[in-house]
Amino acid sequence: MNAGSKRIPFKIVLALLCALSASLPAHALDIAGAHFDDKTSVATSELTLNGAGVRTKLFFKIYAIGLYLPQKTDGADAVLASKGPRRIQIVTLRDLTAEQLTDAFIEALNANHSEQEMSKLAARVERFRATMLSIGKAADKTVIRLDYLPASGTRLTVGNEQKGSDIAGEDFFQALLRIWLGNAPAQADIKEKLAGKN
Fold first, then answer.
1. Which domain of life is it from (predicted)?
2. Could you tell me the fold of the domain covering 27-194?
3. Spatial separation of the C-alpha atoms in residues 65 and 55, rounded to whole Å
């Protein structure tokens, strides 16, 4: 060491390292070319990625899906019982029509609910169906978000554009969650991954 050189105090080094790490982007999970940040924000609340997986059909990759919750949760029942803002994020992995996506969602809703449960949700499911169909098509890598905002309900966003108005009721968002986390999930391994069992 040169006689004229000075040591930088440890506290300054530590502060610089902290500042640098804070400026780095959140770590992203990469699944089949779809990116999911570890953290996101919904209704001013920070959410954490609970798990993510890939929906396949006949060996074709259809979409990647991630679930964000206020805190990491283990198990489908615990996830369904969680409260506060939440997000289902879907990234398409091929060109899809809105009709293909919507029909698959409605079929899974029916598979995971009794006729009586579906009758209570019927009007809101129809609104959701009509809003989904208004998308027209979802090109490869389209980002679709289903956010639950306690003050107003479930919000559908495609890219950065909100579609339709929010659909009221926590029970409706819970019903959507059951598409992937119910007793007859769209895909068994997605249920495990969204439930925090990656």
1. Bacteria
2. Chalcone isomerase (3.50.70)
3. 7
